[in-house]
Design brief:
Two copies of one chain form a homodimer.
Chain A: E1 7-12, E2 25-40, H1 48-59, E3 61-71, H2 77-95, E4 102-109, H3 116-128, H4 135-141, E5 150-158, E6 161-170, E7 183-188, H5 194-207, E8 212-213, E9 223-228, H6 242-264, E10 272-280, H7 283-295, H8 297-304, H9 310-318, E11 330-333, E12 336-340, E13 343-344, H10 350-357, E14 361-367, E15 373-380, H11 384-392
Parallel strand pairs in A: 3-4, 7-9, 8-15, 10-14
Antiparallel strand pairs in A: 1-2, 2-3, 2-9, 5-6, 6-7, 10-15, 11-12, 11-14, 12-13
Helix pairs in contact in A: 1-2, 2-3, 5-6
Chain lengths: ~400, ~400
């Protein structure tokens, strides 16, 4: 993956994962101070690195992000916080950058203390390996139950400058967005006004990471971070500039692709399904209903079984807490209209519907015929494999 | 199962289920008009028999309950309502009782019309077979994915009279209580003041059917009905009488046993687990948090895998929306304290915890150390078998 100008990255194995030689420590480095925006988990139980890194983001400048997998450093109390702080300090002195400009992030088992001796050696190693070509190693080093690294890169031309936006992410289970979800680190060499950076991240998150769910579970460690170091040499971006909207579109594109990559790697998934609620009174209601359907174990198992069981979709929307008239509802599986006025459409054949459900990716559209608001959520099915992964894996 | 005085029941096969000779039509009959109380699903999508029977309950007297399985008569529009009404009329004329005193209930596939010709013959058949010994046949005839019929009977002596309370229920999946859940029909020959009957049912429901969950799904067809026909000859029961509290206890006992029977037959379950939240600020908050844990796919799969993964319990309570201090939380698996002050207890051995999780039934206690309120929820694990049942069964 291409690094934006002025960034380097690396990923190494330092022994935090049980598997020998599995990469488990990643570093992203900016040669100059970058503006930073960040979103953190809304879970009330927050891991030490989340508590620590929120303060770094608040100060607004970032030179480095150090991320370990294999241990979440969550539910580790005061010692966990000290360890997060020490990780930042080790990184800052190895890189010779201010400690207050180092973000720390962790993912893995909850409730165990970090092996700081391993981490200390790991930091030396990962700093030594920094390179503009190191992003793929970094993307590998942040994986847990992920089956593949997740990287997205986009280039666009702004005035005289070529700008790059590159992001890496991890996540496959414990995925249900609440503001932020999972880990994602996005770097750009674009010059962006500082307050603009935060609002771009928040806005982009709404339609990307906040619209995916595997299992309705929100992790203790989630964070999404966006760095902009201005090394591309473009004129600084803010909503006044016409270039701003093109940059925004590219950025949201990168975020959307990373979000989709997480769903495509959803634990045990055999399908990727978009649940789209239309004709709702309010966007929040459409979103609430789409998530209720996306979290329904009965809908998810029916999708796994390729059973076009629209009755379960009706039962789920009825239980969503959103007001609507059941007799006005229509439901389509892709282009096949199956429910109209809350009842099965007379001509619908089971075979037509089966053909849709046999596809790997498809859309379920629920129209409430009530208003103009709509929302879509991307989700997975619930398979034997999901149960297997989570009956044995210790998060 | 013993019938209370003045009641008869029967269960027959009329061809609504695909399996030949599987019982699918049940009738409960009271020789004299009984006071009736009922609770119905809170799902916004309500089946025709729910819409129909609410009105019968509102009028307050009941002579008969006719219940079919194999077809939910839900999402069937005006024709569904007409069919429910016709079912009541057929039953009323076969029994020679007022049509306005016949309750109708259905469970099974959503979105198909009832085969009224089969039902018409079935009603004749089931009326002909009414008997005081017919409750077990009735309990069998209301099963869908249930693996066993659910019946509970209790006798108690009040003043000069012997009173019987007998109930049947069905349910194994799509179980998440919202006021009422699943189907349950409870008959007593006790004489009970009419307004008292409704409040007893509502109150008993709170601590029994409303505290169980298999998969967080609320059906379109749920109802819990309580009949009291006064044939036992006791002095009429109301909160003033000392006998009232003994009757109340027995009634809640019957409801609790039926609720537990549903969880013990939970789809694909290998465990029955009580999630108990203590030390909460408010009972509603304790209940909300207990349900959040009980619905967590990661907690449920860990229980299936007999993995004492308390980190997932911490992540789930943190995501419950209930305010608490993570650093004050303690968690026990039965008597084994595993978390104190939000962190793992130093002496806890994995082996001790494993031994608890290897039991078929156990309790997870979460103490927030915040207030005096508590609530318990009974739930199941999430197994391969749950996925299998629901990937192939058409509800």
């Amino acid at each position: 993956m291409l690094a934006p100008k002025g960034y380097k990255a690396a990923g190494v194995a330092c022994g935090l994962k049980n598997l020998v030689a599995a990469k488990d420590l990643a570093l992203i480095y900016s040669e100059v101070p970058a503006y930073v925006a960040g979103l953190f988990t809304r879970n009330r139980v927050r891991a030490a690195p989340v508590l620590y890194s929120r303060n770094v983001v608040r100060r607004g400048l970032c030179r480095a992000i150090i991320i370990n997998s294999g241990n979440a450093n969550a539910c580790t109390g005061q010692r966990g916080l000290t360890d997060a702080k020490k990780t930042a300090a080790l990184t800052s002195s190895a890189l010779n950058v201010p400690a207050g400009q180092v973000l720390v992030s962790s993912t893995g088992v909850i409730g165990e203390f970090l092996a700081m001796d391993k981490l200390e050696r790991g930091v030396q190693d990962v700093v030594a390996r920094l390179s503009p070509h190191g992003f793929s190693d970094a993307a590998q080093a942040i994986m847990t139950t992920d089956t593949c690294p997740k990287m997205v890169s986009e280039k666009l031309r702004l005035d005289q400058a070529e700008v790059t936006i590159s992001g890496i992410a991890k996540g496959a289970g414990m995925i249900r967005p609440q503001l932020a979800t999972m880990l994602a680190f996005i770097c750009t060499d674009a010059k962006v006004e500082k307050p603009v950076l935060s609002s771009l991240l928040r806005e982009g998150n709404q339609s990307t990471f906040n619209r995916i769910t595997v299992d309705g579970e929100t992790s203790t460690n989630d964070m999404v971070v966006l760095l902009a170091n201005g090394e591309a040499g473009n004129s600084s971006l803010s909503p006044g500039a016409s270039d701003f909207w093109r940059f925004r579109e590219s950025l949201f594109g990168v975020m959307g692709q990373l979000a989709r990559a997480i769903i495509e790697d959803g634990e045990g998934r055999t399908k990727v399904v978009e649940i789209c609620v239309r004709g709702a009174g309010k966007r929040m209601q459409a979103e609430k209903m789409a998530f209720r359907v996306a979290h329904s174990p009965l809908v998810k198992t029916a999708i796994f079984g390729e059973d076009p069981n629209w009755g379960r979709v009706m039962a789920a929307i009825g239980d969503s807490g959103v007001p609507f008239d059941p007799d006005a509802v229509s439901i389509s599986f892709e282009d096949a209209l199956v429910v109209e006025h809350g009842m099965k459409v007379a001509g619908t054949t089971e075979d037509n519907l089966k053909r849709v459900l046999q596809q790997e990716q498809f859309k379920i559209v629920i129209d409430l015929h009530r208003g103009d608001a709509e929302a879509s959520v991307l989700t997975t099915d619930l398979s034997y494999e999901y149960v297997k992964i989570n009956a044995s894996y210790r998060t």
